[in-house]
Amino acid sequence: MKKEYSGTDFINDSYITSLYTGKKENPDEVRRIFAKCREKRALTVEETAELVAISSPELLEEMYQTARELKRTVYGNRIVLFAPLYVGNYCINDCKYCGFKKSAKSTVRKTLSPAELEKELLSLENMGHKRLILVFGESPIYSPEFIAECTRTCYRVKEGNGEIRRVNINAAPLDIDGYKTVKAAGIGTFQVFQETYHKETYAKYHPADTMKGDYLWRLTAMDRAFLGGIDDMGIGALFGLYDWRFEVLGLVTHAVHLQERFGVGPHTISFPRIKPAQELNIPLPYEVSDADFKKLVAILRLAVPYTGMIMTARESEELRSELMQFGVSQIDAGTHLEIGGYQKDASAGQELDKEQFQVGDTRSLDDVIYWLLKNDFIPSFCTSCYRKGRTGEHFMEFAIPGFIKRFCTPNAMLTLAEYLMDYSSERTRREGFRLIEKELAAMEDPKFKEQTMAKLEQIKSGTRDLNF
Ligand code: SAM
Ligand code: SF4
Predict the structure, then answer these.
(1) Where are the domains positioned within the chain?
(2) Per residue in 51-62, pLDDT tens?
(3) Ligand 2 pocket: which of 89, 98, 105 to mutate (most atoms within 8 A of CB)
(4) Does pTM surpass 0.90?
């Protein structure tokens, strides 16, 4: 296949390295940048490098405080919930860190049949999930048409009040026509993680004779996605392959590139850390400590204020809890990585030969929701923006004047109420309605409050899918 890159290399490795190598903390400049962050303005790569250089405990604490404030003012106290659904793990690539790599002979290979996919969907819907991310290995079997068909199945399969309302995708980069095909099936965000922005390291982990060995094909994946009509783009880096400081600056360079070229920044950023996986026996000299991880999440929060930040169940309950305070806005819950795993007994342990990597947070969806409520977070299953066409540039127009807080909080309350009525345990229902009452009492606009209360009453009497 002849490749159409549709973009150029915007990562200058030596320039990025020069931005942080030997750099000392500059308190005056850092405080000027914090003031800019409080105005909810995105940072340049050079400004982000100033935050990367912070080393004193006082400035670090100020940075966490600024990130906490920014998160509260932009996002309120919502946490969006989703579930990953692994559709197939055949893979023609050989990424050295991944349990699905073609050379991992002990990995059990599987692709869900249409009937198995339906069963998985019913299990997820009966837990209360509304938002999914479908995950695929890279293989000719997982063509754009196949991904589109899986997406349509997700929207079609419904039971009782259960339905999937948003399907995001994490799959190999496509060409422009491929993106058009999956867009036509109604996908939300298309995610492609660069893994590492550092070219020499990229070559080390992705053999040159594999599809994924082509750095530029992957780097330009989101450019082609936009040209194919997808304006909710998800970028990410796999932390632990190279210096975290380089990766943070690479991610921000990517965000700035998309903003400059298309007028739309990334919809989400993901920052997975490498976890143990089947046949993972490579040295990882750049493993990121919890302290550095916390720092990089705060830096990203400040650098790209309107980009959703996703933290998956790769990480533990404790860390997720802490990072939700000042950065993370989306988490997965009740996660099973095994293909076909949602039909298994919830208490069944992991079998690494059938899964991509080890999960750090194994709680059920209801337990995660209860825990969020206890910590005064509103769990949200909202899919309203996407379905009302508020994506890409339009999303930004709405988001900037405080829209997220004004509309998203009521929408989070409405989708939470649906969950509480249809799926929750008794203790979660009690906590949920307590928090809804508290949020209603705090609503300042009487018109909105009245409309939200009316919709909540409708939900209690059986109407579903109400939103602003
Ligand atoms: N095959 C497609 C690709 O590589 O883009 C999409 C699916 S791949 C399973 C999704 C992501 O999983 C990768 O982009 C990578 O960042 C992450 N991943 C791979 N191995 C991992 C590991 N051992 N620990 C944590 N994340 C891992
Ligand atoms: Fe395949 Fe993706 Fe795993 Fe690489 S990361 S081996 S492309 S599934």
Answers:
(1) 70-390, 398-460
(2) 999 999 999 999
(3) 98
(4) yes
